[in-house]
Structure formats: C-alpha cells, structure tokens
Amino acid sequence: MKRKRGGTSVFFVLFIFVFIIVTTITVEFYHAFTLKEYIDTEMSRALNIATDYAMLDEYRMEHISMIDMSTAKSEFNSYLHTETNLNSSNELIENGKVMYKLIINTTTVENNPVKFEVSGIVRTKPVLLANLVPINVDIPFKVKARNQRYE
After folding, report:
1. Contact between 105 and 119 (Cβ < 8 Å)
2. What is the pTM of this model?
3. So what's the pLDDT on residue 62?
C-alpha cells in the first residue's frame, strides 16, 4: 500500500490554522470580558462615591433619604476623569492610542429611594485584529447605586 505524499502536511496546516483562529477568538472574548469587568467595577465605585458624597445629611434625623442631584452627577464625572484617567471625550488614551471610549447613554438620579443609575456602551477595538479589521466592538453596561444609610 502506497502512502500519498503531502496528506499529513495538509492536515497539519489545517490544524494550525484552526488553532490560530480559536486562540484569536478566545483572546478577543477575554479582552472584552476583562474590559467589561473593569468598567463595571470603576463605574460602581464612581456611583457609590458620588451617591455618598451627595447625600443631604440634614434629612437623616427624620429618616428621609434625599440627594443633591447636581452634586451627584458632578462627583460622578469628576471621578471618571481623575481616577480612571479619561479625557474630556471620555476616552482612555495610552501610548498615543485610544484604548476605549466610554459612551454614557442615560444617567438617572432618583430621590425616593435614592438611586443613581448609569447605562451606556464601551467602544473598543479588537486586540489582535485591530490593524486588519477596522471595526469597533461595543460592550454594553448598566450600573446602579443606591443609598445604604438611613440611621
């Protein structure tokens, strides 16, 4: 029985090709997942700090929870720009490249009960395929914070 020459090479090349595709997809999903977790954590931190800072303490004696809405929004924006190093366009720039852009679609502050909610998308580029595929990846987020102090 004669063996065909090159049969093994074709399967090996196909295996390598499939392996590269699976690895690339895995890296891209991992990048999207870690970026979403980072954004969720930072946004939660910003909302909690803004909510705590903007609470009107003079109403706590009567067990009324009230918030200064303009202070909450300004503290939230201040945290985003100082602690997460976003520029005025809500972009994180490292080494001259835009890593991601934070697009906030809705900001809701409610007074009774006190609740601060932000939703939007994080727009980023693929990690491995950024030079080959000129697309943006939009990752949605929705974060809430509420007042915990009633004392």
Report:
1. yes
2. 0.79
3. 65
